[in-house]
UniProtKB/TrEMBL annotation, chain A:
Bilayer topology: Peripheral membrane protein
Domain of life: Bacteria
Predominant location category: membrane
Gene Ontology MF annotations: ABC-type transporter activity; ATP binding; ATP hydrolysis activity
Transmembrane parts of this sequence: none
Family: Belongs to the ABC transporter superfamily.
Compartments, as annotated in UniProt: Cell inner membrane
Domain ABC transporter: 12-242
Organism: Mycoplana dimorpha
Keywords: ATP-binding, Nucleotide-binding, Transport
Name of the molecule in the record: ABC-type Fe3+/spermidine/putrescine transport system ATPase subunit
One of the Pfam families matching this protein, by short name: ABC_tran
Upper taxonomic lineage: Bacteria, Pseudomonadati, Pseudomonadota, Alphaproteobacteria, Hyphomicrobiales
InterPro entries: AAA+_ATPase, ABC_SmlMolc_Importer, ABC_transporter-like_ATP-bd, ABC_transporter-like_CS, Mo/tungstate-bd_C_term_dom, P-loop_NTPase
From TrEMBL, chain B:
ABC transmembrane type-1 domain boundaries: 68-255
Protein keywords: Cell membrane, Membrane, Transmembrane, Transmembrane helix, Transport
PROSITE patterns, per the entry: ABC_TM1 (PS50928)
Example of a GO biological process term: transmembrane transport
One Pfam family this sequence matches: BPD_transp_1
Main location: membrane
Recorded family membership: Belongs to the binding-protein-dependent transport system permease family. CysTW subfamily.
InterPro entries linked: Bact_Polyamine_Transport, MetI-like, MetI-like_sf
A single Gene Ontology CC term: plasma membrane
Membrane topology note: Multi-pass membrane protein
Subcellular localization: Cell membrane
Protein's recorded name: ABC-type spermidine/putrescine transport system permease subunit II
From TrEMBL, chain C:
Membrane-related topology note: Multi-pass membrane protein
Keywords: Cell membrane, Membrane, Transmembrane, Transmembrane helix, Transport
Keyword DNA damage: no
GO biological process, one term: transmembrane transport
Keyword Signal: no
Principal location class: membrane
Stretches assigned to coiled coil: none
Segments passing through the bilayer: 24-47, 87-112, 119-138, 176-196, 217-242, 281-301
GO (cellular component) term, any one: plasma membrane
InterPro entries in the record: MetI-like, MetI-like_sf
Organism this protein belongs to: Mycoplana dimorpha
Protein name: ABC-type spermidine/putrescine transport system permease subunit I
Length: 367, 276, 310
């Protein structure tokens, strides 16, 4: 099982990538595998090390320790201009003194090439990213979306094995961003190469990626499908970073086959017992998504009930977000789709009962 | 007075002041050109009529023309070498991060801050010890040093506006360092390189003190003009002056095209409401 | 993955920050500066301590030159009066040049429409590109006793208004001011154009008059630029020899008397005696004076910088 076969099925393997800048640890033992033709998003708050990781993959930064393999080949000694990776920059980094055609042809022209064939190839690329008719334009005459396409074409024409994208949509307006998400995904499937996509925007990550890696303070917090990350965050950080989740902390009181009871500051909370169960007495967190908490509905034995005081309401277009204070002083959010035009809450400051199902409560944070 | 009226009064005053200042700045240049084309032996009124006598005298006499030739030789050569040196240095300073980078930049700028008198005496002291003084190439050597600083400042300014990602993108697309330099960095730096050369040329072409100390008998133009000035009143100075101003004017057009857009941005701000 | 056998050492990849290009690119500049800048400067400082035997300098570490200079401060060669004359010429010239230029820059920034500002700047900076020596010569023909101004005055019958500025230190200052203003324009334009317009609008909105806005907002925010400008101009003027020689006629008259400026003394010392070490020692003293001016300006600037910090 050690042989070349296992290696060949992976486009990229990062093993213990660590990068220190003096005392500061930017990346702390990153392990990540990217399968063949996979779209992986690396997501995290600013300063989590995601851009440094991308630059290490491209060869723009060195590592303090760790290894990087592309299709089983160690890239340690490969300098940037010989790597099979291409980076697409956040600001596109298009060459302003060249027109669109010359920008796209930049890579192939660096080596031996036949001009007529190159011309054909550039036209194909332009076709692929819908840039027909713009090849004679200067870079300054392009819109943001067009620049984005030129940057993609310029990278793809060199036939990379992996395309690295550094927040490539962040400079576009919301409307265009959504359209480009679809196009990027289609492009990746057409080319059949792996895309590694760095972003701080979870909508982008979840809508395009096969798998998402969440980074925090130079460590990988969780890797998984968007569904797994969204519904089953494995750590307190992921739970807070992803979606709109509420967290309750407490010590494990009892563990049964179906549910685990946790003694929290806000009273006992029951959560589903997963495949791994915590020990009694251990401090854990319970995650409940904001849209799974209901106000004053039917009270079954299968529901947790907590007391809270309504503090306010935020109108968020299609839904309302209600903020409540818990007895221990923490704040929780619940999302509900009230009928449009319902009167603003007059009972601000009034106590309410909130309910959520045991099935919607997950335990995280134990060893 | 109304608000609008007061404002207009201030603006009129401001423009009158600019006008007075411009008259002060350009009066000498105008006078010199005027009297280079008059019959007057002395620069005094009334004017005696148009004449090209002084230009003929200038070209027949020879010393000033020889000196102009020396300057035309030394200044472009010094500016070219200085531009190459300063482009390389500016590139390294801009691209690499290393200790003492700011210190190095400061040191590179120093020669223009040190008065020519001091540098001239210092150079003479050393060069005369080494028996390198008294020839045209000693002026060249020192002028390369003197003009590297202004050229470096302009080229560095231009390079600092090149987003780091452009050169990185070239490498990423497979360019070697040399290819990236030639295909991305130099095309970008070109206005700065031209501007730097023009500035270096100007500094060298007008430099008097260092040249005076080290030139010996191979005088550059400013040195020759000074010698003539100290000796006699000679209206052919007006003629050479006009020629020199013409050369400066050509350089200035280049500066307007290459340097000012770097300093003041390609376009002026769009807000155009004058007045405090 | 069974990677325990492989030592996870740092990958020795050569990143773009490590390249032979760095040394290659810096080498020419560093070499040139080493040989033709630091070499002469170090030699310069040492050379002032050499002595002269049989009309040729001998390497030594003697204070003879400095002793001679200080002995001749206010007697004999009057070096001290030369220094005083230099300061008396330079400091007022720098102050006048800065004041006039500052007013011009204010007029350009606030009195000229934005699209014309670049032209106005170009016109005011352009004389920098013309030969300084020739400009001084042009001032000679303008200010001379039978020069352009006086002959014009006589020609139109205003003979009693004739001016007598030539070969005085006032003429020296005119030449210096003409030389430094284009440079000061740049320094002060950068200062004034960086003042946030919104601050001026706020001040006017709060009821301040134009003059109050100028005194309370624009002037304090220009302080660093103004100090830089005055000290820079002073140092240039202190080191200048040409204007004093050509317009001041060497020992031009002033309140201090008919004394040449210190650079003029250095140049005539160089021309008349073969004692190069002593010339060097005099130039070293000039450097010290310039450093003092620089130190004073930095001292004046520090509280202004602190005040600007948020």
């Amino acid at each position: 099982m050690q042989g070349g076969k296992a290696v060949a099925t992976k486009d990229l393997e990062l093993i213990g990538i660590t990068r220190r800048f003096g005392e500061f640890v930017a990346l702390d033992g990153i392990d990540l595998e990217v399968g063949q033709g996979e779209f992986v998003a690396i997501m995290g708050p600013s300063g989590c090390g995601k851009t440094t990781l991308l630059r290490i993959m491209a060869g723009l930064e060195s590592t303090t320790s760790g290894r990087m393999l592309v299709k089983g080949r160690d890239l340690a000694a490969v300098p940037i201009h010989r790597r099979p990776t291409r980076l697409v920059w956040q600001d596109y980094a298009l060459f302003p003194h060249l027109n669109v055609f010359d920008n796209i042809a930049f890579g192939p022209r660096l080596g031996p090439h036949v001009p007529s064939e190159l011309r054909k190839k550039v036209l194909e690329m332009a076709d692929l990213v819908s840039l027909e008719g713009l090849l004679d334009r200067r870079i300054s005459q392009l819109s943001g979306g067009q620049k984005q396409r030129v940057a993609l074409a310029r990278a793809i024409i060199t036939e990379p094995e992996i395309l690295l994208l550094d927040e490539p949509l962040s400079a576009l307006d919301a409307h265009l961003r959504i359209r480009m998400q679809g196009e990027l995904r289609r492009l990746q499937q057409a080319l059949g190469i792996s895309f590694i996509y760095v972003t701080h925007n979870q909508n982008e990550a979840f809508s395009m990626a096969d798998r998402v890696a969440v980074l925090n303070k130079g460590r990988v917090e969780q890797v998984g499908t968007p569904e797994a990350i969204y519904h089953h965050p494995s750590s307190r950080f992921v739970a807070q970073f992803v979606g709109m989740n509420n967290l309750f902390s407490g010590k494990v009181a009892t563990v049964s086959e179906h549910y685990t009871e946790i003694a929290s500051d806000n009273g006992p909370i029951r959560a589903v017992t997963g495949s791994k169960s915590p020990r009694i007495g251990e401090t854990v967190h319970v995650v409940v998504q904001a849209d799974k908490i209901k106000r004053a509905t039917a009270h079954t034995s299968n529901e947790n009930r907590i007391n809270a005081i309504l503090r306010g309401r935020e109108f968020a277009g299609s839904h309302n977000v209600y903020l409540f204070d818990l007895p221990n002083g923490n704040e929780i959010k619940i999302v509900s789709e009230d009928e449009p035009g319902s009167p603003p809450e007059k009972l601000s400051g009034s106590p309410s009962d909130l309910y959520f199902s045991v099935r919607d409560a997950f335990i995280i944070g134990f060893q | 007075m109304t608000e609008g009226g007061e404002r207009r009064a201030w603006i009129v005053a401001a423009r009158i002041w600019i006008g007075i200042f411009l008259v002060f700045l350009y009066l000498p240049i105008f006078m010199l050109i005027l009297f280079s084309m008059q019959k007057n032996q002395f620069a005094s009124f009334p004017l005696m009529g148009f004449s090209t006598e002084w230009y003929r005298k200038l070209f027949n006499d020879g010393t000033l023309i020889t000196a102009l030739g020396n300057s035309i030789l030394v200044s472009p050569a010094a500016a070219t070498v200085a531009t190459i040196i300063s482009f390389l240095a500016a590139y390294a300073i801009n691209r690499f991060e290393f200790r003492g980078r700011n210190l190095l930049t400061g040191i590179f700028i120093m020669p223009v801050l040190i008065p020519g008198l001091i540098l001239g005496v210092a150079c003479l002291g050393l060069l005369s010890r080494l028996h390198l003084n008294g020839e045209l190439y000693s002026v060249f050597l020192m002028h390369v040093l003197l003009t590297t600083a202004p050229a470096l400042a302009i080229i560095q300014l231009r390079l600092s506006q090149l987003p780091r990602s452009h050169e990185e993108a070239a490498w990423d697309l497979g360019a070697t360092e040399w290819q990236a330099l030639r295909r991305v960095v130099i095309p970008w730096a070109l206005p700065g390189i031209v501007g730097g050369w023009l500035l270096a040329f100007t500094f060298s072409f007008d430099e008097f003190l260092i040249a005076w100390f080290v030139a010996g008998f191979d005088q550059t133009l400013p040195v020759a003009i000074f010698s003539v000035l100290k000796a006699v009143v000679d209206p052919s100075l007006n003629a050479i002056g006009t020629i020199v101003f013409l050369i400066s004017g050509i350089v200035l057009v280049g500066v307007e095209m290459f340097v000012l857009p770097l300093v003041f941005g390609r376009e002026q701000g769009t807000d155009s409401n004058p007045g405090v | 993955m069974e990677n325990s056998a492989i030592a996870l050492r740092g990958a020795k990849v050569r990143t773009p920050n490590q390249s032979w290009l760095r040394e290659f690119c810096l080498l020419p500049a560093v070499a040139w500066y080493g040989v033709f800048f630091f070499g002469p400067l170090c030699f310069f400082l040492w050379f002032g301590f050499w002595r002269v035997e049989d009309y040729s300098p001998v390497a030594d570490f003697s204070l003879t030159n400095y002793r001679e200079i200080f002995a001749n401060m206010f007697t004999g060669s009057n070096y001290g009066w030369g220094i005083a004359q230099s300061l008396w010429v330079s400091v007022p010239a720098a102050l006048i040049a800065t004041t006039c230029t500052y007013l011009v820059v204010l007029a350009i920034v606030y009195g000229v429409p934005a699209r014309r500002q670049r032209l106005a700047l170009l016109l005011t900076v352009a004389p920098f590109w013309s030969s300084y020596l020739l400009r001084l010569y042009a001032w000679q023909i303008i200010l001379a006793r039978e020069g352009a101004i006086n002959s014009l005055l006589t020609a139109i019958g205003l003979g009693e208004w004739r001016i007598a500025l030539m070969y005085t230190q006032i003429a020296t200052r005119i030449g210096l001011i003409h030389y430094v203003t284009p440079i000061l324009i740049i320094i002060l334009y950068v200062t004034v154009s960086n003042i946030d317009r919104a601050l001026i609008d706020v001040s006017r909105n709060l009821g301040a008059t134009r003059l109050q806005t100028f005194r309370k907002v624009i002037l304090p925010l220009s302080r660093v630029g103004l100090i830089t400008s005055v000290s820079f101009a002073t140092i240039i003027c202190l080191g200048d020899f040409l204007s004093g020689s050509l317009l001041g006629g060497g020992g031009g008259t002033s309140l201090i008397g008919r004394v040449p400026t210190f650079p003029d003394m250095i140049m005539s010392e160089y021309g008349s005696s073969s004692n190069l070490p002593r010339t060097t020692a005099m130039a070293s003293i000039l450097v010290v004076i310039m450093l003092i001016v620089l130190a004073i300006s930095i001292r004046l600037m520090t509280p202004a910088l602190k005040g600007n910090r948020r």
